[in-house]
Prior knowledge:
Elements: H1 2-24, E1 31-35, H2 40-51, E2 59-62, H3 69-85, E3 92-98, H4 105-113, E4 121-127, H5 130-135, H6 153-161, H7 175-179, H8 183-199, E5 206-207, H9 209-218
Parallel strand pairs: 1-2, 1-3, 3-4
Antiparallel strand pairs: 4-5
Amino acid sequence: MGTDNLFHKRREKKLTDLKRHAAKRETYAKILIVCEGEKTEPNYFTGARDHYRLNTANVEICGECGSDPRSVVTYAKQRYREERDAGDPFNKVYCVFDKDSHAGYSPALNELASAAPKGTFIAINSIPCFEYWLLLHFTYTTKPYNALPDKSTGDQVLQDLKVYMPDYEKGQQDVFAALRDQLDYAKANAERSLKAAKANGTDNPSTRVHELVAFMQGIKPQ
């Protein structure tokens, strides 16, 4: 009898905690954004979340899960299971990572494509790196980036970006705010370059960051 009472008390507490947590959320979708970078990408999406006044209980952002795309996917799936088991799963899980020279890039894409529930896990990949998305705020380019003996693909994109943002440094906190006025231009450029890459049978360069930004812009009922 005592064991039964203890079980019911624990169950009631769990339900109470769940209701309390859910009450903090607003009525729109609950999403998880897991980033490869510890600062640059999380800072960017945190800036977007703040600008669009999205509830932190609805939009969770993490960048402390390792630098390899597969570690991003592993963490994302773990967090999804935790919230699902608590009875309050994420509606969408976005995995933000670069291609660069990561050996785990293709396996990460394949794992996300087969992840369940279908349509929940979404790859927000950039080729060669996230800074290509930032570059598209200033110019449209489909110039492919290939590693050179003395310069990585990421360093080449960074060099091109600094033509327009000489003071840009990885990890700075105000990137979204600094580029907000050019956001529509960047989204159009990203969509255009993605279509061009598909038409040419390549992915270099391309990005899907605009898809996540668009989702964040429309997530909250007007």
